[in-house]
Specification:
The protein is built from eight helices and no strands. It is mostly helical and 158 residues long.
Length: 158
């Protein structure tokens, strides 16, 4: 794959990958721009390398010439190396691990819980409210929620 970079070589308009971002999102953005740009496998591999920074760039710079044989091979190596960095969306059960810290305001705790619940794939508001009630520290507010259960987050905020 010793194809020279053409003189009309362009820089892609995507963010750099430094090993902490979501690799699937990075590859999707790269592929979308390569559909527009075109080019051979060798050019695609070289352009993908241009999007790397930090540890990712160090890792791929150390690969011997001729080791990568095609763009699918390059993508596969990239995925295998950084698969542990894949960002998994939170699950509903993760809400039950969120607890109000000692000294944390009720608003701060509710904000954290809501931020997680927004990223859930499914919105089961009853479960979010149940997780909220389970995670708050003992207080008169907690007692009132047990006596008069809220069904939605807006009811909890009132």
């Amino acid at each position: 794959m010793d194809e020279p970079v053409p003189p009309n070589y362009i820089t892609l308009n995507i963010t750099f990958f430094s090993s902490v971002e979501d690799l699937e999102s990075h590859l999707k953005a790269f592929r979308a721009q390569m559909i527009i740009f075109g080019g051979s496998d060798a050019i695609r591999c070289k352009m993908l390398m241009d999007t790397f920074t930090g540890k990712t760039l160090q890792l791929f710079s150390g690969i011997p010439d001729g080791h990568i044989t095609s763009f699918p091979h390059c993508s596969r190596m990239f995925k295998e190396q950084f698969l542990p960095n894949k960002v998994n969306p939170p699950r509903l059960c993760d809400l039950f691990n969120v607890r109000q810290s000692k000294g944390e305001s009720l608003k701060g705790y509710l904000d954290i819980l809501c931020a997680i619940s927004v990223r859930l794939r499914t919105q089961d508001e009853d479960m979010v409210v149940a997780a909220f009630v389970q995670g708050i520290t003992a207080s008169p507010f907690n007692d009132s929620l047990i006596r008069n259960p809220a069904e939605t987050l807006p009811e909890v905020r009132e």
